[in-house]
Amino acid sequence: MSSEKPSSSDIPKDELPPKMPPVTEKPLDSAPEVPLIHDATIVPEVPSENPFDTYMDDLSFKLSSKINKAVDGLEVVAQGSIDAATGAAGIAYEGIKMGAKGIKKGIEGTPEAVDKLYKGASSILESAYKGLYKIPGVNRLVGKMEIGYNQFWADKHEEKAVALKGEMDGFDIRIATLNDTERGLENSIKELEMDGTPGAEKIRLKINEIKRQKGVYLNEKAKVSTKLKARQEKVGSFMHKRDEVAQNLKEFYDKKLEPMNAELDKLASSRSELELDATITELQHRKLTERLDVTKSRKAEFERLMKATGMDDKEISKEPIVKQWNQELLQGYEKMKNEKAVLDKKIYDLDRKMAKTEMKANPYRDEREEFVRVTQRGRVDINVPPKVDGKPFEGRTDVDATGAPLPREEYRETTRARNIILDESLPAGGFAGESGPGRGAESRESQEDKRPTLEAFVTQWNMLPGNIKNIDLLPKIDTVDFFKTLKGLNKEFKLSMPEFKKVLTGYYKVKGKLTGPAKTALNSAFTAWEAKIRRDNERNK
Amino acid sequence: MTTNTNDQKIKTNPDLDRIRAEMQKVLDETIEINKEIDIVNKESNEKVAEIEKNVDESINTLEGIYSDLDKAKQEASDKLDDIAIEESIDLASDE
User: Fold this and answer.
1) Residues 6+ apart with CB under 8 A from A480
2) Which ipTM score applies to this complex?
3) Please, which residues 261-320 of chain A have a Cβ atom closer than 8 Å to chain B?
4) Its pTM surpasses 0.90
5) Cα–Cα distance between A353 and A408 in angstroms, integer?
6) Does A327 touch chain B (CB under 8 A)?
7) pLDDT recorded at residue A135
């Protein structure tokens, strides 16, 4: 069958058919409308809505385009059977691919052969890709790599190799039979010559015919043997090509992941700065609100005094100084309220943008690990791979179950609620000896006075005992750097314990010190600190 | 005794004058607080604008990197498809 394929050198030039009409390649995104290989009966199926089918439609289009290219280069009349032509089309394809356009195996007049090749290849391709587009969420690129390394192709090549081996064995049997016949005939010649009987010449002619036939079989066997060898090499060659794709991609990822991680660190640092800035502004506003509240109550006192001089409410409200004061108070509260709204919106938008960009990074890190895993399959047993930069991505704590950031207000409310609980569970002063019962009766201003200063908090923090697990991960505060970073809050700024915790958290974050265990250490330190204050207060009662 | 200033009837007596003088001091403090609010807001806005600028720069750089990686992924994906197509043709051609 395939052994009878014609060769271009066997065919006189005047018998060559005119070159086949060129096949126009269609862009991949347009629906195929005409048969892809001139006369062959390849009619693409109607594109399906199913992603797998759609993808396979595209691949089939690519496949037929490749075959078309191969067929386009053919110039020689095909003289073999359909089977022979099928093989020829494949060889021609290979020939074109390798740039050996001189391989001229004819398929003219056998579009069925091309159709058979197309259908055969399509079926193999579909079997290989089966499942890739059916599992939702699967990483398609990694899936394709997996396909390249799975047993499917090896089995297919093995099937072919077994068939070729069978062909070779067939030739061996035929050659062995011819050898037996040859030996028998040679014995007959010897007997005839010994008897002096004529007829040996005729038998010699038969032996010559057998030798010629053996030569044909040996040649065919050699051809099949070459094919078998080529097939074995092809297995390695396809594997090598896939290795190369995976390796190049991995190298490209390595090259890009480093600056990506550096940029993500910068982004994380910006987020920490933003959080710290929000905390500082919030504290400053809190302090300014309290000061406005004080002047507001002073105004009320003055109004009472005015009333005592005989002025009525209407007259008081018309007093220019009262009017201006009301205006100033209103403006002050409004400005802070508006600024908070603007700031919250900006922070929320920035936060969302940052979270979105950060979240996009993880699949790339995972993919890089997947490339390594897939290409090393069977060679190295890999468990859960570590992240590329050696540290896990710290997901946001203020994101919902889907990973989307919580609205800023919701996040802040949660934080505020925690602070209130702490505020209520601790004396307002924060430090033992600086607070006492009955504070509710005191004015807000004097409450403020009793709060420790930021500097006092820092001093206390630096003096905390070092027996808290991992506390050494949080370096003692360098006050110069601390107050420089906290521009806007000076040493005398008075604040509560939860507020200091928030400030300190923001500071360590900006300094890149608040990693997983350090965060736990910070929380443990504050828990221990608060417990100590409670105990001291109990003792002082 | 009353005076009329700016179409406004303002009562005058020594006690009221004293009260007004005291009030003016506290009002001045309120005005001062308002100025401080402006400063705090301005500083905060400047800081946020600076962070916003840095964030935008980082996001642009990152989006560029993602785009490069996506392009490389698409190219690799196409190459893998090509290899699968070649291998399919190769296997089908021997039948």
Assistant:
1) none
2) 0.79
3) 263-264, 266-267, 270, 273-274, 277, 280-281, 284-285, 288, 291-292, 295, 298-299, 302, 305-306, 309-311, 315, 318-320
4) no
5) 13
6) no
7) 58
